[in-house]
Amino acid sequence: MDKYALFGHPVAHSKSPYIHKLFAEQTNQSLQYDAILSPLDAFSETVQTFFAHGGKGANVTLPFKEQAFGLVDECSSSAEMAGAVNTLIMKDNRLLGENTDGSGLVTDLIFNGIELKNSRVLVLGAGGAAKGALLPLLKKETALIHVANRTEKKALDLARQFSAYGQVSASGLVDVPHEPYDLIINASSASLAGEVPSIDSRLLNNRIVCYDMLYGREETAFNRWAKEHGSARQLDGLGMLVEQAALSFSLWRGVMPDTTRVRQALRDYLA
Ligand code: ATR
Predict the structure, then answer these.
(1) Which of 146, 174, 198, 237 could be cross-linked to 213 through a Cys-Cys bond (beta carbons 3.0 to 4.6 Å apart)?
(2) How far is the C-alpha of 87 from the C-alpha of 93, rounded, in Å?
(3) What's the pTM?
């Protein structure tokens, strides 16, 4: 049976084995997908052992996505720009790297009926999650992306890196220009601590969609705040999780699973 795995630290909490099991059942693919805890100081060895024993592909999660980028023989432009890889593919004895996180986000936004072409997007955060999202968003011909981060310099660096691909500006969280945004994406990890990036709540209105890349059993802190301050819709990152997994699965198996049923199954599983 073809073997796939997720490498991370920690990894036990991951929903990916469940998602890929559903994809495999749905598409009649015979495969095994396990979560593997990699020691923090031995990611490369752990991955190499897996592939030496016939592994066909893998996902990589925190904190190893940058290390995975350093490991591959070849990678896509999205992975190159993000400097991070979440999907490994063994093909003809070469290790290929892709980053499906940002495309998963974009696919989820489209699934939810959000028009990205000519839209004005505010991205909160300038870490790995924001970086992975920028190129896939820009490829959808957004009118403008403003990146705001607690540490302003990181936002400015990101804007500079991506400015060749479209209109990207940057600031600290408290200096976000008061412009009519269509979409605010929380790519910061603030919700993990139950916190909300300190942007002015007057940036919200009843036409703005707010999207938190995180998800959980409970509504995230950011989405709760967005609802309280009158945004039109609040979406969480569960759909992004399923879509990035589906893109990895299709790269490995050449077949795209139907994500609608898996989204629902995952919501029920979390409930
Ligand atoms: P990830 O890979 O999840 O993006 P990361 O690269 O460590 O994780 O980046 C975390 C991001 O969340 C950063 O942009 C961080 O802001 P700083 O660059 O100023 O550290 C942001 N972040 C974390 N906690 C936050 C908080 N409480 N409020 C606002 N931003 C926060």
Answers:
(1) 237
(2) 16
(3) 0.96
15 is in an annotated binding site: yes
Q: Where are the beta strands (DSSP E) in 151-220?
A: 168-172, 183-186, 209-212
Task: Report, as ranges of residue numbers, the positions in the chain whose pLDDT lies below 70.
Answer: none
pLDDT value at residue 116: 98
| Per-residue confidence (pLDDT) for residue 270, from 0 to 100 | 84
Give me the pLDDT at residue 93, please.
94
pLDDT tens profile 82-97: 999 999 999 999 999 9
ipTM of the complex: 0.97
Residue closest by Cα to atom 21 of ligand 1: 188
User: Where do the structural domains in the chain lie, given as residue ranges?
Assistant: 2-99, 102-238
Strand order in the sheet with 57-60: 31-37, 2-8, 57-60, 87-91, 94-98, 74-75
To the query of whether residue 3 is one of the catalytic residues in this protein, the response is no
What's domain 2-99's architecture? Answer: 3-Layer(aba) Sandwich (3.40)
Distance 21 CA to ligand 1 centre (A): 31
The matching CATH number, chosen from 3.30.530.20, 1.10.357.10, 3.40.50.720, 3.30.450.20, for 102-238 is 3.40.50.720
The one catalytic residue in 65, 91, 117, 131 is: 65
Question: Ligand 1 pocket: which of 122, 147, 150, 199 to mutate (most atoms <8 Å of CB)?
Answer: 150
Residue 31 CA to ligand 1 center (angstroms) comes to 36
